Amino acid sequence: YTFKNNGNEDIYLINPDGSHRTQLTNHSASDADPDWSPDSTQLVFASSRDGNTHIYKINADGTNAQPLTAGDSTNAMPVWAPNGDKIAFVSNRDGDWEIFVMDVDGGNLTQLTDNDTVDQSPTWSLNSKQIAFVSERDGSQQIYVMDVDGSNQTRLTHDPDFESYDPAWSPDGHKIAFTTHYDGHEGISVMNHDGSDAFEVTLFAADSWLPAWSADGAEIIFSSNQNGDDNLYVISPDGSSLRQLTADIGADFAPAWGVQDVYVQRVFHIIYDPYLPTRGRLLSSYFVDPRQQVYDVVRSLQSHTDQRVQYVLQDQVVVDAFPPRSDGFLHDETSYMGCMASNWPNTTTCAGFVWADYDSIINDPTLDICGRLNRDEIDEVWLDMMPRTGFYESVLAGPAGFAYNGPTFTANTCDALIPIMAMNYEWTWDGGHIFGHRAEATMTRVYGGWAENAPEPHHWEQFGMVRWQSPDFAYAGCGSIHYAPNAMSSSDEYGYGLIAPPFGSVCDDFVNYPDLGVPEVVKTAVSCTTWNCNANDYYHWWFHHLPHQSGFGSDGRHNDWWLYFLDPNLAYAAPLADFTVTLQNDEPPFEVSLTNLSLGSYDTVTWDFGNGSGSSQLSPVATYAGEGVYEITLTLSGPFGSDTLTQNVATLLPPTEPGLVGRYYDFTDTPYTPPTDPFGDGTLRFEQVDSNIDYHWGSGSPNASLLGNDQYAIQWEGWVRSPYSGIVTFHVHSDDGTRLTVGSKSNESWVICGNCHNYLTLDMAAGQWYPILVEYFEDGGDAQIQLEWLLPNQTTYTAIGTGHLFARQTTQPGLLGTYYDYEAGHFVVPDDPFGDGTEKFAQYDGNVDFYWGDGSPDAALLGNDDFAVRWEGWVRSPVTGDVIFQAHSDDGTRLDVGDDHSEVWIICGNCVNMLTVPMEADRWYPIQLDFFEDGGTAQVQLHWQLPGSSSFVPVPQGHLVAPTDHCRLLNAPALAAQVSGDELSLTIGSAYSGDTFYLYRLTDPYATPNQYDLRLTSHRYWEAVADGQFYFVTEANGLVCETAQSNRLGVIQFEIVAGE
Questions:
Q1: Does the pTM of the predicted model rise above 0.70?
Q2: Which helix (H) or strand (E) holds 630?
Q3: For the segment 295-315, what is each residue's pLDDT rounded down to a tens digit?
Q4: Bridge pairing between strands 22-23 and 8-13
Q5: CATH architecture observed for domain 579-645
């Protein structure tokens, strides 16, 4: 990416996790707009280092910068074709900005566009046959696409209110990310490669621009000014999982993501090269120049690793002195040159076996090795010195460690292990030998040992197996640094013999690691001709086979052994337990897949499934017989420690009524303008239970006859539960706007745009129900909304299954009847018998079909006259059409169904109240029937006439549903306790903070008078609610609940009196 500070621009490298920030170019001119070659070994960029801005090519280690363009023109924005053959760029060489392509060496220059306006920002398609670009030819910046020869130029973006630029084609060729500019705001959007289905990804106030894709297409990197400075951020293409990558004071922009995993290793190069005053020259002048040889070492190591490791010289320091020795002696020109002239006699002064004083070097404040490491500036140290100065090929420094070629040095302030490699400038070398020993030492540490001819070889022992050292086996591996796999004796160092079947090598099979085959089946013949009978080529062959796959093997270790080579701290790490939980099915027996993602070194794996069973497999499947919430525990132990992790999983049966309750509003007559409320201003047209939210109505609507095609809103309400404990991210994709609430978290304001993404995260407990409210409005044009979630330890969003959504409990058919007494004052219309009366009790009535004659529903509580009843609930028709409702009563009724109301009372001695309602089959509509009795005969019946029928019949229970999520205790069961001290149990409905409960009476038989403690525990849909406890006050005929108070347990005493 490009970093601009104090007016200067340079190119930097950084790992995808934000680590190892490394400066690649360091020039007083501007270096910007980098792009990777397909194999990530080189980059192209634009630089003004030669006066005009031209396109350059440079190695990934910062060496060998070469210009590809020349002349008086300005050239910029280079991009490398995925097939590696061409580089596209922009140039003003014809007088305005046009797009050109050239070969990777700068030859065969071809102009693709020719307009009087600006054409810029090219990006290649996956097959290298098309280029998307930006043009102002139609008056504003828009994105176009053309064939690689410049033909078929087609516009992709068409919104006149937006400018679109900075296109970046996704690695799979299906998507294009780009920058949109509207009303002074810049954001990142994604569209299909044909320009369809564009939506904004960065839904925040800060500006964002210049997107680029990760190699796997799973993330987008971009520049944004969220915190004032322009830094790099990474986000998923669906707008989730935003993370900040850089935090520089300056500007980070124009990122380019390498197309393969490339590890950047930052080297601190220390050269001991004293000036010899009597000879007037540097000591190194007698040998090979270490300042140049180091680049040969870098190139050889990158070749050995197939360019996967990019060594970058972060800093180079030349020390004008001889290195200190552990015996305290320090050479000068006279002593050292005298020893060299005498061919190094075995004297105290010239002894070559006295080791260098590593502690002194490591703690030298002028070198500041530990300080550089602790500040995350370097990853390893390379010491370059003259011969015969007592250095090991490789050592480790840090708080503790293991042996490389020499011991670990711990008398320092390094916070972690750091490799210190030594080389001398006596001769030219490629580094494969000493770095190979480093790899051997590291993997021996990782696997806890390395023995030839081991009875049951582990993977590292199998990799390093040598024919003559493992005679009990009919095959060899890849060998060691000193002995090729086909070496037949200690003198046959690089395998000049042929090893052929029935022997052979399994080394080629390690490209499939960790999926290794049977050795006797996969072994192949090798001889020294395989590596040209050359030591350096053998090192290359050996390193090439070192496993470098992603993920973990069955032994819990990294499949990529280069990670251990580069970071010795991983080889010394204690285990860190981690695993994912995946519920495979939604009916007994439940199967739960457990995937081990643990880090570090461990030998023993122990699983406890929380149901009395377990496993020692790396990634087992747990089986559960029934519903429940289970604690799954993984315990790891190994040579460097142990670790334990516990996660919960809920095995769940579907709820009684899956889905969410959708309430559909029309606000055609009162057009909605944020931030007003579309539900308060709209008219409720109908209600239904929707199994989930996954709708694309296009230019239509859920119901054109009731809602029209525009200007409507929907509220979906219910409950949601996760099968796993942890952070769950909810995502609503919509047009036009949404508002989301889950549990105690809410997006308080509307997220409004043409193609919106609304996100909310919540820490959820497995199996626990949380309230959910999704609010949506459509204000014209395309209409769509989808609800999905990202579960803990999952990587993709999925639709929320109906088994995890609960609309409401409908096990109680009928209507809720609330019964009022108003004997204190006779009811006279238009007074309200409910407002003037006293609520005595409530109960569920299967339907409304009552004839009490001269009596009442309950003479003791209501008397025989002057009472009223309100029945509430929901009704649905089995067929579509006009349904005629009929309420037959004495004395009066008032009836509401859906949006249709009989707003006045129908009053007479024998009355019929009729209401015609257009209904859709199986859709729930709210219903309320009010009745009062003012003397004489008391009766009320609710009937309907369905479409196609000629008669009225009672509305059956199966088509009536009473609301059960209200806050009342209805006809509590008898208290069975007869003796003081017995426990009394009442089961009531649901409660959350703010709910109110009423206990109206106790039915027969009554309990014996005594004192009792009454403790009530609230449950909401089978789950105990901790936030719904009560205080109570007594009344003559029972108890009345006060408002529930958070985290309070209500305990009261009351006296039960017989007959009352």
A1: no
A2: strand 628-638
A3: 888 888 888 877 778 788 888
A4: antiparallel
A5: Sandwich (2.60)
